[in-house]
Design goal:
Elements (H helix, E strand, L loop, with lengths): L1 E3 L2 E4 L3 E9 L3 E8 L4 E8 L1 H4 L2 H15 L9 E7 L2 E7 L3 E3 H8 L4 H20 L2 E2 L8 E4 L5 E3 L6 E2 L21 H4 L6 H17 L9 H10 L5 H4 L5 H10 L11 H12 L41 H25 L10 E3 L8 H10 L3 E7 L9 E5 L5 E3 L3 E7 L5 E2 L8 H10 L3 E7 L9 E5 L5 E2 L4 E7 L31
Parallel strand pairs: 14-17, 19-22
Antiparallel strand pairs: 1-2, 2-3, 3-4, 4-5, 5-7, 6-7, 8-10, 9-12, 10-11, 13-16, 15-17, 18-21, 20-22
Helix pairs in contact: 4-6, 4-10, 6-9
């Protein structure tokens, strides 16, 4: 490493100017490429890790993985090397800010902008996945937004994994990454595939629209447990301005089971594009939350100690083992109690039970009749988040095939269809204004015309239904429009036609018999 005017120069070419950021294992500097006369970013491995072969190998693998990914939404890697025991990577310099700084300073993004950023991230991931690379650390801190162009760049492939190869340096069961953006399978130390990156992107999309990630906690273990076991709050419950279609995309990404997520980044990108184009997207049913005890979450180092989220191999922790042992014992005890209760051990004179029928996708009247036959009561709750005909049962509690006491209540979730719209008062408006207003509310307009006065000509003088009536979108509304005064004429008396006789000169008189 040479020195030029007090500034370090690597490979006799890259002159460091100032520090841009610091991570858990490296420092990033703004530098000048003296050969090509351009600014570059140089990532230098911390001296504390330079003597550790595993960290050096991870550093080398990041350079190799990213250098093979040539895409406008992935930060380019130009060079890597070692000089006097110092390892460095030379990357494209992005004049902008990381996404986490933007969210911290400005709060949630507009849903359209959040969808655009997620689309660009998905585009970069699609190329990485096609190249056999799983990023494993998608988070706002690893997404750069160029200024003022707004271009999106995915960076930091430091813990990337090459699928189908042996280049993954972590031991089985070790968790690496940032707990807030873990996929459930990543939190459990299981095998990862591209769908794990899509879950992490779902967390980023959630944070971009809501202003906070779906799961938070005091420790990484607490957050990881929520990723495995708990259902995220619906984004619209935190920010009602989020469109329903974008919420559906986000929740599909956050499905616990990878099978229920998007199969690829390209499929996600296609739905995000449809959303931005205003196309109607299918509304999938919420992904079920696992009820069985998941595999224990492996121990890992507290990410608060490593600002970049690059977590080294952790020490074993007896406290975590005891915690999961207690949880398992509690679950076992509950299972024994539940089994005994089902056998009637605690209730020798228990009420007779019946099997709850499957009532989903049935008309509500038919479902209620079936419950009556089973000696069960019914209750309704309506929903507009459905893609079946109004009046159809979309869900039930308790679930089908479970046992319930005779006389107990089964709650039916019934599709209510689109929300009703209140009929406005359009009397006195011009025909064009009234028709434009009603059609804008989703109604079909029929027009009747009738005579009136000069003053009300062309104006609405009546409407059916009346104002303040709640109607379904698509209902027909009739407006009565005045034609003004109309002229009236009296029909002339019928003309008298005299037919001259053809033969006789005198008129012929005919007397009726």
């Amino acid at each position: 490493m040479s020195d030029s005017g007090g500034l370090p120069v690597y490979n006799g070419r890259y002159q460091l100017h100032r520090q841009l950021g610091r991570g858990g294992m490296a420092i990033v500097y703004l530098a000048h490429d003296q050969l090509l006369d351009r600014p570059v970013a140089v990532k230098v491995l911390n001296a504390d890790f330079a003597g550790d072969p595993s960290f050096v190998e991870r550093f080398r693998r990041e350079a190799q993985a990213a250098a093979n990914l040539n895409h406008p939404n992935i930060v380019s890697v130009f060079d890597w090397g070692e000089e006097n025991g110092t390892y460095f990577i030379v990357m494209e310099y992005i004049d902008g800010r990381p996404l986490d700084e933007i969210l911290a300073a400005e709060g949630p993004l507009h849903p359209d902008r959040a969808a655009d950023v997620a689309t660009d991230i998905a585009a970069g991931l699609a190329l990485a996945h096609r190249s056999g690379v799983v990023h494993r650390d998608i988070k706002p801190g690893n997404v750069m937004i160029a200024q003022p162009s707004g271009n999106v760049k995915v960076t930091d492939f430091g813990i990337a994994k090459v699928m189908g190869g042996d280049s993954e340096l972590t031991q089985a069961g070790t968790v690496m990454g940032t707990a807030t953006y873990f996929s459930p399978e990543q939190a459990q130390g299981k095998h990862l595939d591209p769908r794990s990156d899509l879950y992490s992107l779902g967390v980023v999309l959630y944070e971009m629209t809501v202003g906070r990630p779906p799961f938070t906690g005091d420790t990484p273990v607490a957050i990881a447990y929520q990723h495995v076991q708990e259902k995220p709050p619906p984004p619209r419950s935190m920010n009602p301005a989020i469109p329903l279609a974008l919420e559906a995309i986000t929740l599909k990404l956050l499905a616990k089971d990878p099978v229920l997520r998007y199969p690829s980044a390209e499929d996600l990108r296609a739905d995000l594009r449809k959303f931005r184009e205003g196309a109607v997207l299918p509304q999938p049913a919420p992904a079920p939350v696992p009820t069985a005890m998941a595999a224990p979450i492996p121990a890992y180092a507290d990410s608060a100690r490593f600002p970049a989220g690059e977590v080294p191999d952790p020490p074993r922790r007896t406290g975590i083992f005891l915690f999961f042992l207690i949880v398992l014992l509690v679950a076992l005890g509950f299972g024994i109690w539940f089994f005994a209760k089902q056998l009637g051990v605690f209730e020798p004179d228990a009420v007779a039970q019946v099997t709850v029928p499957d009532l989903r996708n049935r008309p509500v009247a038919q479902a209620e009749a079936l419950l009556t036959e089973k000696n069960l009561e019914s209750a309704r709750q309506n929903t507009t988040d459905c893609d079946v005909a109004p009046g159809t049962v979309t869900a039930q509690t308790p679930a089908a095939a479970t046992k319930a006491d005779e006389g107990s209540t089964v709650t039916l979730t019934v599709c209510q269809g689109a929300a009703q719209v209140t009929m406005p008062n359009v009397v006195g408006q011009t025909e064009a204004d009234a028709q434009r207003l009603l059609e804008g509310l989703g109604f079909e307009v029929a027009v009747n015309r009738q005579p009136g006065s000069i003053e009300d000509e062309g104006k609405v003088v009546g409407q059916t239904p009346g104002a303040d009536t709640a109607l379904d979108p698509g209902s027909i509304v009739t407006i009565v429009v005045s034609e003004g005064e109309t002229s009236t004429t009296t029909a002339p008396p019928p003309a008298t036609v005299l037919v001259p006789p053809t033969t006789a000169p005198d008129p012929v008189t005919v007397t009726a018999p």
